[in-house]
Amino acid sequence: MTLETEVQSLRQVPMFRDIDPARLKLLAFTSERVQFAAGQRFFAQGDPSDAAYVLLDGRASVLLNTPKGEIQVAELSGNALLGEMGILSDTPRSATIVASEPTTALRIDKRVFLELLAQFPQMSLAVMRELAQRLERTNAQLVAQSSS
Amino acid sequence: MEKSLFRYIWTHSKREQLFICFVVLLSQPFYFISLDLPRRIVNEAIQGEAFKDGNVTAPFLQLHFDLPQWLGGGSLRLFDGFEVGRVGLLLGLSCLFLFFVVVNNGFKYWINLAKGILGERMLRRMRFDLFAMVLRFTPEALRTVKSSETATIIKDEVEPIGGFIGDAFITPVLLGMQALTALFFIMVQNVWLGLMALAVIAVQFTIIPRLRRELLRLGKQRQLASRELAGRIGEVLDGIEVVHVHNAYAWERAEIGSRLFALFSIRLKIYNRKFAVKFLNNFLSQVTPFLFYAVGGYFALRGTLDIGQLVAVISAYRELPPPLKELIDWDQQRLDVQVKYDQVTQHFAEERLGPMIDADAEAEAEDQPLAGPLVVEELSLSGPHGDMIIENASFSLALPTTVAMMSNGSPAASMLARVLARRITGFAGRISIGDRDLTQIPMSLSGRRVAYAGVDPIIFPGSIRDNLVYGLRFKPTNRTEADRREVARRVAEAARSGNPFESISDCWIDYARLGLKDELDLDRALVRLLERIGMGESIYLFGLAGRIDPERHVALAERLVEARNRLRETFRSNGMADLVEPFDVDRYNDQASIAENLLFGVPVSGEFMGRNLADSPQFRSAIDRAGLTDGLIKMGLQIAETMTEIFQGLPPGHSLFAQFSFIGAEELPDFQAILRRRARGGHDLRREERTRLLALPLAYIEARHRLGLLDDSLKRQIVEARSFVRGTLEKAGATGVEFYDPDRICMAAPLRDNLLFGRVNYQVADARHRVAEAIAAVIRELDLLEDVERIGLDHEVGAAGRLLSPQERASVNLVRCLVKRPDILIIDGALAPFDEERAGKILHALLGDLEQQSLFMVLSNDRQAGAFDVQMRFNGGRIVADQIADSQGRAQRAAAENAQNIAGEVA
Asked: For residue B644, what pLDDT is reported?
C-alpha cells in the first residue's frame, strides 16, 4: 500500500471528496500510517484531541463511558473519518475508539491539518460544506423525531 | 594599569629590553665588518693591493688595533695572522665573509625571535591584566559596559600594541644610532653641509608629527567606531528575537550600513592624510641631496669645497634617509599605539572598577562556617529613583533558620536578599553575622558559604555538570597534569607574563569538604539533587540521547550489549517484536533511511552526513560498483516529481516544507526545471544534477514516506551494496563512519540507539511510547539508571543555556547553589519558571534537606510561608518578622507574642 492508495481512500471520505488530488496527496504525505492491534485504543474519552484518523483497513468500535460502564455505540469500518470534530473544535475526545480487529489507519496530525486548512481555502470550504451538511441532517432528524 | 604605555612596557620588560638592546649593540661591529669585507675582497685579494709591494704572501686574520692619539698612538698587535698567497687570501676572505653572513643572520634570527617572544609575553600580560579588570567591574559600571565591546578590546585592540612592544625601545636606539653616525660623518666632512642636512631633518621632525596629529585624532575615532560596530553586532545577535518579532531587519541593516559608511569615511580621511604626509616626508628626504648637489656643487665649482669631500658627503647621506624614515614611521606607530592604549585604559578606568581581589591573601582566610546570630541594625536602602525602599530597619535572627521574605509586590524583599548575598553593596546601617561585619567578610569565604539563586539563571556553555559544579571551583586542590616538564614550562611562562599558575586541568573540586569520595560520588550527589527538584526525568532523557565514552562510563559500556540483548528478549517475549526493526547486516531495514541502510553505520564526519554523502567520491564509487547509481537517481527523479507536485502552492518558508519536504522551497524551481527538461525528452543530466538527485533518496524511509519506491530487488541490491561501501571506505582509510556491530557499542550513536540497535516502527500505533517504557524497565532491571543519568550530566546546555527549557535552567541554577552546601541559601525568584505546584514541591524538598543551614526565600505571597520558621513582611519601608517556630523546630509559639521580641520593626 502506498501513498496513491491512501489518496484513493481519502477520496472516499465525504469531507475530502472535492479536494484537489495534489492537496489530498499532501494531506496523505504529511500523515502517518499506523497499525493498531485488536483491542488497542486509538484514544480514550476525555483525552486531548491531537489527531484525526481515517480507517484504511479493519474496524473500530466507538465506546462511551456511562455510569454503567463502557458501552459500544457504533462500529466504524473502511474509509471512515474519526476524531475530526475534536481537532476542529479543540475539545477533548467525546468517545473512546478501540480497534476491534487488526486495523490500519491514517493519522492526520491536528497541527498539520489546521495548517493545511489555513493555507488552502478550498480545503476549508470542503470541510465547512461537510459540517453544514451534517448539521442539516441533524436538524432533519430532530424534526423527524419531534414530529413522530 | 599605568597611564603611559611606555611606563607599562618598561615596568614589565626592562630586563628583556635591555638585554635585547645589548645584543643589538653587540651585533653592530659584526655587521660593519661584513659590510667592509666585500671591499677588501675586491681591493686586496682580486686587485691585489695586499701584494702590491712584490710580496708573495699577505697576512690573513691579522688582528691589529691602532690606538688613538690620546692614548699615546702606536698600535696593539694581538695576532699577526697567517701568511697566505693570493688565492689563499681570496678564499680566506670569502670564507670569512660567509662566516659573518652566518653570524649576522644568527644575530638577526635571535633578535627577531626575542623581540617576538617579548611582544607575545607582554601581549599575554596585557590581555590578562585587562581580563582581571573585567572581573573587577562594579555592578554600577556593568550597566554601561558592553560585553562585545570589551571582548573586541581584549582580543583585537591590544594586538597591534603587542606587536609594537618588541620594537618599543630597540628600534629608536638602533635607528637613532645609525642616523647619528651618518650625520656625524657628514659633519666631519663639512660642517655647513651637515648643518643643512640637520636643518632639513629638524623640519621633518617638527612638521610631520604635527601633520600626523590629525591622523591620530582620526585613528582614535576609527578605533571607537569599530569598537562600537563590534558592540552593535553583538547586541543585535543577543536580541535577534526582537529583530525577528518586530520585523526590524531593514532598520538593523540600515543601522549597520550607516556605521560602515561612517567607518569608511574615517578610513578614507586617514588614507588621504596618511599618503599626503608620506608624500611630504619623501619629498623632504629628497630635498637634502638636491641642496647638496646645488649648494655643494656651487661651492665645489667656486673651489671652496673639495670635490672628494662632496662625494663622501653625498654617499654618507645615502645612508641617512632609510633610518630616518623608519624612525619617523616608528614614531608614528608609537603615537598610534599610545592612542590605542589610552582608549583601552579609558574603558577600564579606575572609577569603573571594584577593589582588587587578592586571591592569595583571601585564600589564606580560614574557611569557617558563617554561624551565629544575623543582626541587622538601622538598615536603610534606597531604590533607583532615590526613594527609600527600607528605612532604619533593625532585627536579629538566630541562625540557622528559615525565613520567608514576603515581598507583597514591593522590591524590598528582593533587595534585602541581594544585600545579604552581597549583590548590593550600597546600603546604610550595619549587618553582622556572628561577630563578623557582613561587608568585612572576605569574598572567598562568602563565596563558599553563601549561595544566591536569582531570577535569571546564568548558564555558561558546556555540560550540565560543568554548570552544576561551577560553584565548587575555588582553587585547585592538587595537580593532575602528568607531564612535569610541561607544567614547569607553563608555570615559568605564567610567571614571566603575570598570569595565574593554576591550570583548569588541575583538580579544582575539594571532594572531602563536600563529604564525598570522588568524581563518581559527586555525580551521584548531583543526580540526587536534580531528582529532588524534579529534573530527574530530563536528566534521564538527556542520558539516553547522549553518547557513551567507554573510558568514563566503564560499567555501562561493559553492560550495554547485555542490556541490548535483554531489551530484544523483552520485546520478543511480550509480543512486541514488531515495535522495533533491528539492524541486521543481511536485511533491509524499512524503518531506516536509504543512506543508513547503505552505510549500515553512523556517520562521524560531516562529509558522510546528510546530503554530503552524495558528494563523497568514495561513497559514489561504491554505489557505482554496486550498480545502484542509476536506480537511486531514478528514485531521486520520482521523489522530485512528487515533491514538486504536492508542495506546489505552499508559500516558501512554510513550516510544512521544513518538516516534511525532501526539497527546500528555494530548490523547488531548480528541480522543476530538471523535470521539465526530461519531460521534453532531454535525457542528459549534468553531473551536479545527478548529485542533487542522488541526494534525495538518501533520506527516504520506506515506512515513513510511503512513496512505494523500493521493491524487493532494489532492497536486496542495497543490502549487497553495504559490503562495497564499507570496503571502499575502509580501503580509503576514511574514518568518517562508524559501522554497526551487534556485539559492540557504536560510540557515534546515542545511548538510546545503542540500546535499541534498530529503528522504532513508524507504522505501529503508540510504538515510541511503548518502546520508551520497555527501555526504562530494562535500565531499571539492570540497575543502569545511575550510569544513564551520569551521561545525562554531560548534556551540552548551549550558549546561555538555550538548549535547556526555562525550568531546566532554573533547576540547574538551584542545584548549583545546593551542591555547595552553603550555610546561607538565598532564593530570590529562582522558582519563578515553575508552576505553583512544582514550586511547592521544590520548596518542600529544600526545607527537608537543610542541615544546620539557613534559607532565605523571597515569596510573592504567603501561601507557602507556613513552612518557614520566620515570616518577614515588608511594608512601606518597614520590616516585620514573625517567628513561628524556632529553628530547632520546637513547639510552635504564638506569633503575636514573638513579633515583639524579634521584630525590631521600626520605620
From this structure: 87
Q: Are residues B683 and B828 in the same domain?
A: no
Question: What is the ipTM for the molecules in this complex?
Answer: 0.87
Measured between CB atoms, does B769 come within 8 Å of chain A?
no
| B609-636 average pLDDT score | 86
Which residues 116-145 of chain A have a CB within 8 Å of chain B?
Answer: 116, 119-120
Which segment, B369-383, B430-444, B456-470, is predicted with the most confidence on average? B456-470
CATH topology of domain A3-147: Jelly Rolls (2.60.120)
Number of domains in chain B: 3
Residues B309 and B394 in one domain: no
Nearest to B6 by CA among B348, B327, B330, B334: B334
Q: CATH number for the domain including B372? A: 3.40.50.300
Q: How far apart are CA B277 and CA B331, in angstroms?
A: 13
pLDDT tens-digit map of B750-781:
999 999 898 998 888 888 888 999 999 999 88
Q: Which of residues 22-51 of A touch B (CB under 8 A)?
A: 22-23, 25-26, 29-30, 32-36, 40, 42
Enumerate the residues of chain B whose CB falls inside 8 A of the CB of residue A4: 708
Task: Examine the domain organization and report whether B195 and B326 are in the same domain.
Answer: yes
The answer to whether the beta carbons of residues B208 and B281 sit under 8 Å apart is yes
B768 in a domain, yes or no?
Answer: no
- Range(s) of the domain holding residue B318: 171-333
Residue carrying the nine cell digits 543601522: B255
DSSP class of residue A98 equals: E
Annotate B721-743 with DSSP letters as a single string. HHHHHHHHHHHTT--SEEEP-TT
Give B280's contacts (C-beta < 8 A, 6+ positions apart): B207, B208, B211
Number of H helices and number of E strands within chain B?
34, 20
As a whole number of angstroms, the distance between CA B223 and CA B230 comes to: 11
Q: Which of B645, B659, B706 sits opposite A22 (nearest CB)?
A: B645
Structural domain spans, chain A: 3-147
CB B37 within 8 A of CB B102: no
Q: pLDDT band for position B447 (50/70/90)? A: confident
